[in-house]
Structures are given as structure tokens and as C-alpha cells.
Amino acid sequence: MKKILTLALATVLLASCATPKASVNADLAAKKPKAGDRPMTVEATDALDDYGSTAKVSDPLEKLNRATFWLNDGLYTVIFRPISKGYEKILPKLFRKSVDNVFENAKYPVRVVNCVLQGKGQRAGLETKKFFVNTVAGFGGILRVSDKVPDIADLPAEDSGQTLAKWGVGHGPYIVLPLLGPSSAREVVGLAGDYALNPPNYGLYFHGGNANHDWMLVPPPVNTLRSMPDQLEKYDAATKEAVDPYISAREAYVQQRDEAAKK
Amino acid sequence: MISRFFFILSMACLVLPGITSAATAEAQAKLQGAVNQVLAVANSSGSKAAIATNVRPLLQRSISFETMTRRAVGPGWNTFNAAQKSKATQLFTTLVIRTYSNKFTPGQTPQIQYRTATEPATGRVDVPTTVVYKGSRYTVTYRMEQPGWLITDVVIEGVSMIANYRSQLDATYKKGSADAVIKSLEQSVSKQP
Prior knowledge:
The complex is a heterodimer of chains A (263) and B (193).
Chain A: H1 2-18, H2 26-31, H3 62-90, H4 93-106, H5 108-117, H6 121-137, H7 160-166, E1 174-177, E2 181-184, H8 185-197, H9 202-207, H10 219-239, H11 245-262
Antiparallel strand pairs in A: 1-2
Chain B: H1 2-43, H2 48-62, H3 65-73, H4 82-101, E1 111-114, E2 118-121, E3 124-133, E4 136-145, E5 150-156, E6 159-160, H5 161-175, H6 178-190
Antiparallel strand pairs in B: 1-3, 2-3, 3-4, 4-5, 5-6
Helix pairs in contact in B: 1-2, 2-4, 3-4, 3-5, 4-6, 5-6
């Protein structure tokens, strides 16, 4: 009996020793065994190499995707880059920032609906608070006042692709969309969801054919134009110093989407 | 006998978490020092090309380029001879320094907030940071390893620099050989920055 008690007590004490304190992320520690305990995989180059196999998404359409990728690359260089540079040159930075703020604020339905669909009730509440703070105190979203409010300053963006990922839907095949660039079967569905939930697009499918409402056709191209510099910067970051720009863009996209889905 | 055993065990319980904290604190302090030095040099440089040249010696003291190159190449690394390993490391070092210094614009200083570091494996500490730069907010995690708590990866917005290069270089190796990897690195380095 004494032996059993001794063993039980020793186990509890050892368990408490093995539990890292506050500075150690308990979640990570639980998921990732210590390097010494982990057998090296075939892909590993040393004991701490956990990068594993390289492909993070299936790419059965690689030939077609590569062709679309290089077509897009040409279009970015010949058409989009000059337009983007012109936009940055003509309009002052403060004005461009305000336009960004308005469109990002207007995307509130995309964020809040997807928070709810992912069961993130508290986050949906914070998104609503952020929307009202920026709309009311920020003059219709022109100013991002929420940056000064700690609990809503840094809310991770939510979208329909992330909701599908949260529901356990895998990427499916990787797809390079004409003009839009990297995506996957799941993310194409997500994009359609985001498009339907984004108010600047409402005019297109409610009144697109009605001449009296032609002004409603303005927001979508403006939205595309204002997001161009940021999109091109992301594209350049993924491809500029790459050994194989196609693979680099693909992996960066998949890693970034997977990380966004975890937040 | 039993009481002595429990005494030693209790002492170990008190000391071990301290060691864990010390590792994260040491790695984080080393990172902060390196980042501050790099920012000071980047701020005093007049152009992006000058930043790359000026931060090189600092980065060589703070980054394990040998580890980075080995892992970026992947399993094929073991078939590289000593000369090929040295050449690949030299080329990849230039590429990493250029990639890193390209993130900076002279005159623009990022605001960096260091968050709680974690120790996912013995000898490895991940230091997450939030960077506010040119009006945008980014999550940047530095992966640091022993010996010397050197940086072995930088993960920006969930995108690991080393995992990304590995997917490219491993594919190149599988299509060709060590020479094909070196040739592809040479081509990337020779491109206009």
C-alpha cells in the first residue's frame, strides 16, 4: 500500500515538474514532444527539423496553373502595376488610407457572419463594437478609431474560406485564378461567400442592369483599385527573391490561409 | 530514504520551470538586442541596397545560416559534398539577407511588441512579435535555437521563410541534383534586387 502511495505521489510530482510555467505555451508543448523524444523522419535533416514533406496542397492542375500564373504575372506587370503606381502617385497617402478604412469597415458583414458560423460569439460581439466605433466615431469608417481601443485594435480577420476550414473542409486542389491569383477549391467557394456578403458588391446583383442605379456599379472597381497596391506588395514579397516563384506563391498562400484559419 | 527522494524531487520541481523560463528569457533578450542593432543600422542607411550591405555582419552574428540552408534544401542536403554545402550556404545567406533587408524602407521605423515566448522543444524557443509598420500590423515569429540562441527561421503572417524555400529547393533537387539546386540559387542571387 505504502509503495502504491509513494508511486502515485511521485507520478503527481513528476507531472507537475513536466508542466511548463506561464512562459511556455502549454498548447504547443502538449502537441510538440521534446526533440530528443521524437524520432527523426525521413525528411528531417537534424533533430529539430520539423518542416517535413514539402507540398502543403495537392496540385494536379500544375501545368495549367503555371500557365495562368505566368499570364497573371505578365498582366500584373503590363496593366495592374502601372495602374497601381498611378493610384499611389495621384492620390495622397492619407486619402488612400481613408478609402481603405471605409471599404474594410464596410466588410463588417463578412467578418461577423463568419464569426457566428464558426461559433465565435464573443468575437462577433467585438466585431460589432469595432464596426460601431469606426462608423460613429470614425465618420462612416473614414478613420479607424478602433486602433486606439485595446480589445478591438487587433481582431484577426474572418472570412468564408476560414469558416470552411474550421468546419473541416480541406483545400482540395490548388487553383490559380485568372487575375486573382492563388486559390484552392475550398477558397473559391469562400471567395463566392465573401463576395455575396460584402456590401460594396450588393449593387451589382440587386440593381446591376438598371440604368437608374448605375452609380451602384462604382464601388466594386474602386474596391479593386484601392486594394491593388497591397495585393501587388504581397505578390512581390512571395515571388521576388524566390527560386521558383510559382511554388513560392503557392506555399506562401497555403501557409497564410492555414494560419488565418487557426486564429 | 523515501523522504530524501521526495526532497530531491521537490527541489527539482522548483528549479526545472526556472530553467525553462531562463531559456525563453535568454533567447528573447538575444533577439531584442539583435533586432535593435539591425533597426539602428537600417535607419542610418540611405537605400535598400545599403541596408543589405550594412546589416550583413549583424545578421551573420544572429542567424544560423548553415542550419537555415540545410533545412531549406531538405533531405537532399546529405548528398551534397563539402564544397557544394559551402557554396549553397554562401548563396542562400545572400538571398536571406536580401529578403530580410528588402522588408525595410529607409526612414520608416517599425514598432515591435514582443509577446510571450514559447519553448516547443528542448533547445528551441519561438519568440512571437507584433510589428506595426507603415500603418499595417503583422505577426512575425522568430524561431531561435541553441547553441547560441541563433535565429533559424522567420515566420511572417504564418508564412515560414524556410518552409517556403524548402518547398522550392526540394522540388529542384528532386528534378535535378545538388548542382541544380546551386544553379537555381545562383540564378536567384544574380537577379536584380
